[in-house]
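[step 3/7] fold_predict: job queued, chain A
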Amino acid sequence: MVLDEIVLHNFGLYADRQKVTLTPPDPDKPVILFGGLNGHGKTTLLDALQLCLYGPVARISNRNGLPYREYLSRCLHRNSNIKEAAVEVAFRHTIDGKEDRYRLHRSWRMGKHGCKEHFEVLKNKRRDKALAENWIDQVEDFIPPNIAKLFFFDGEQVESYAAQDNSTQLIGGAIQNLLGLDIVDRLEKDLRTYLRRKRMEDKDDPLRGEIEKAEAVLKDLRTRIADLKQEWAALKTTGIDPARKSLLAVEDEYRKLGGELYEQRVAIERDKAEAESVLEEGAGRLREFAAGDLPLLLVRDLLNAVHARNRKEGKSRRSREVAAILDDRDRKLLREMRSRAVNAGTVEALAAYLREDRKRRRRIADMETVLDLPPEVCGDLHALLRDGLDTLAGNVRSELGKRVEAESRAEHIRLKYAGIPHSDAVSELADRRDALRSEIAACEARYAAMGSEIDHLTRQVERDEQSLLRILETDAKAEGGRRDRARVLRHAGRVRATLDTFRKTVIERQVRGIEQLVLESYRQLLHKASLVTRLAIDPESFALTLYGRDGLALGDERLSAGERQLLAIALLWGLAKASGRPLPTAIDTPLGRLDAGHRLHLVECYFPFVSHQVLLFSTDEEITGTYLDKLQPFIGRSYRLAYDDAAGSTKIVEGYFKESEAA
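[step 4/7] structure written:
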């Protein structure tokens, strides 16, 4: 994937329309360098790129849990009188040797009823409506939102990834997304839903009361666990922002399962019925055409021949009617001329001419009459050939064109209808989402007690599930009609164990590869080549451990702040390599809080090689002097974010900081 261009229109600090070329001019010059002072729009430019790609699910720096439309309204350029803004991104993507070009256009406008967004996708310069409507799913094929933070990140915040809790979360989340384990989670949830349904089938026996009581207890326990887990997650920190991040994660999972389609199911069903009605009406009109004059289009040449023959026969009839009159007229005319003593030669010449004229007319009159069409038939035939068939053909072509459009729309609606999930698949997520929205509250003092309570209730659920499973197996064996259900229940544990084994095996295999990639990346960045000799990631907890030359684990205190930040960058670099996706990398404040030595290692060993396209957003105190000189051979394009204090806006101009402007 190569980013070719970004266009900003009244977005944030950027007034009017500004276009920036991002294509590296040479494979050996992958770096696109942006220079700007703090507060002049570097982060805004990176946010615009992610907003255009991901829309409502974009992880943007300054959104802070705002509703999407409210966030869009705040992105309008504050000094602009035009209540609209837009972001465009053009990129190329190659699959199996075939390159396709895409242009995304995301715009929004403030109106009487709030902020209204418009989004469209052009593929190879052609508007693709279906691609735009399903872009949230389609963007997974290019750069999935869940791994975007491996490629788009802030250098000042990256150091936090080196902390044990954050690195564990980063590695676990990356592995979950890289391996697609959300599908396994969904399968396990579907299995539980299926089992609950099976357990409630055919319980008209003496054990029904006992089963219902056990089910009620389990349901109560699960409800209590779910409530406690939601509160426990909210209590992990004292602020509301982390809870909102959890809400974004739930909404993302809800969307992947098709929750939005489920909410729109009534409208989709109505659209489906309307589309099918339009198709049926169009088919009725085509049948009416077929029942009328339409088949005559197949014999148009024959109709033309009939029309021509009929004209000749008409001429023959008229000639026969005139022939008798002409004989009498010609005799009288010659007699009159002779009586007036006209020159004999002239009379003879006229007589000869008249004889020839009568012979010619007799030849025409002698034509055999085959058709002898009535006048009304002649009129109908003439009208058809003059413009009736052409008009009919045009109407049929128009109707067929409308039918093609109607069938395309109907097929699109059928696809959406087929994607509507069952209520069982989304109800649990909907409950969690609604609960998170209404229960963002905290009390850190209860954190440990709630964790213990959750563990206790979970163990109780496991014991009660085993007890219920034994009751159900006994009940199922009691009657032959329940053997299938009993078999399902007996094997359910094996299936869940198999899923768990599959998960552990796949994770362990992937972790070994990630360990090697992260270690290679870290050692490439470190100026102390022997500081770290081995790196290990626990496949269950995803805890990261470094080992020194003595074979002992290195604690955080053994690493300097710069070395911890390089470790965090190595984590991102290694995980990005593990993704196997050739994607651009964009880094805001790339040198962060690093000291001079570590900065030089990033400039020499990381920026030129991290990707085939690298966007760096630097202040005047970062990539300057020696660092700029070292990076210069790899810079393909450079821009400066020039802020106009009087206008309150930033303009993107070519060229980096001048020497006098840099610190």
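[step 5/7] annotate
The mean pLDDT is 79.
The first strand starts at residue 2 and ends at 11.
exit 0
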